[in-house]
Amino acid sequence: MNGSTQSEISKNLKNEKINRLFIYRTIKRYNDTKSVEDKPRSGRPATVRTRALREKLRSKIRRNPRRSIRKMAREYPVNRETLRKMIHEDLGLKSLKRQTVHHLTPTLRIKRLERCKKLLRRLINEDSVQILFSDEKIFTVDEATNRQNDRMIVSPCKDIPESIKFIDRVQRPLSVMVWAGVSADSRTKLIFVPQGVKINSQTYKESLFLSL
């Protein structure tokens, strides 16, 4: 390709899927240094973030993705920040929090799938279907508290009234269950569920829907 322009070289190497910017930089490096080798880099060479260590990390994480960076840093002669960069930058991995989801047995999974398919068929065939999303919540009379933020500035401690110093807790506080539902264009009134009533399909049919 002696005497060819950059565009001509790029067209000739099109099937090789080589980036045009890479071609431009290679030509410029050769014109400047008469060589295509990388220029000597300043600073301390990277002697820790080696390919061998990357492969060890990849294998270890693949076996146990829940292993913490802190623990892995103890197993290798690498500080935690360097190890974090290797995992995120070199391996392209991300650290995600585990999510809490509702436990579903194999039987429940099958039932959920069947119900979803049935609901989708109804939505396709019936234009007048209105979906009501509902939920219930238990409220207790215990005072809400946050140990991190609920503080007092006092002196001395013995002069603090007990009503302020302590927060009473009982094993079974008084509570009330409230039910409500919303749809695309409306909402239900709040329904207070009697004490001891269990929310199930029978309760929905006999009590809740009749109260709307």
From TrEMBL:
<dbReference type="InterPro" id="IPR009057">
    <property type="entry name" value="Homeodomain-like_sf"/>
</dbReference>
<dbReference type="InterPro" id="IPR036397">
    <property type="entry name" value="RNaseH_sf"/>
</dbReference>
<dbReference type="GO" id="GO:0003676">
    <property type="term" value="F:nucleic acid binding"/>
</dbReference>
<protein>
    <submittedName>
        <fullName>MhmaT1 transposase</fullName>
    </submittedName>
</protein>
